[in-house]
């Protein structure tokens, strides 16, 4: 094996591709988990119905035509395509970022969670024109806006991205 490959394992042919494939498969797992949970809620609940699981957690069925916290929800029509374009653009950027990484790390995990969540909600936008939310956290009569698995993945991924973006070794 040439010296350059010994010093930099990412120089081995196919190494960057395998990291990208791992990332795409992990993002697909997030999408599948998100879609299966939404499908179950969609087929089990009626809109507005709430089932209390704990003193601070309900399951509900809410249709959100906007983004987080129903941002732009009352701009019917165009926001569906606007948020779809953002999801696709971010996913393309994440694929480019994953190809730059030399090894799997927390940054890669964050990127994959963001992409999986963005694409999970994209499926809803294309299928229904809005996103299915069903997790309702609450305390003392105050309810956090309902969210879903995809939203959770985006939030956790964003935190990981911010925390680990400076610590990631890039390809030489």
Provide an overview of this structure.
With 172 residues, the protein is α+β, with helices and mostly antiparallel strands. The chain has helices at residues 3-7, 15-44, 78-100, 106-128, 149-164; strands at 50-54, 57-64, 131-139, 142-143. The protein has a four-stranded antiparallel β-sheet with strand order 1-2-3-4. Helix 2 (15-44) runs antiparallel to helix 3 and helix 4 (106-128) runs antiparallel to helix 5 (149-164). The radius of gyration is 19 Å and the shape is globular. It starts with a helix and ends in an 8-residue tail after the last helix. Residues 3-14 and 71-75 have low confidence and may be disordered.
Main sheet: strand order: 1-2-3-4
Largest sheet: 4 strands, antiparallel
Label the overall shape: globular
The whole-number mean of residue pLDDT values reads 85
Q: Percentage of helical residues?
A: 55-70%
Number of strands: 4
- Global structural class: alpha+beta
Q: Which spans have pLDDT < 50 for at least 5 consecutive residues?
A: 3-14, 71-75
Q: Which sequence of SSEs, written as H and E, runs from N to C?
A: HHEEHHEEH
Report, as a whole number of angstroms, the end-to-end distance. 17 Å
Count of helical regions: 5
Residue share in β-strands: 5-15%
Q: Calculate Rg over CA atoms.
A: 19 Å
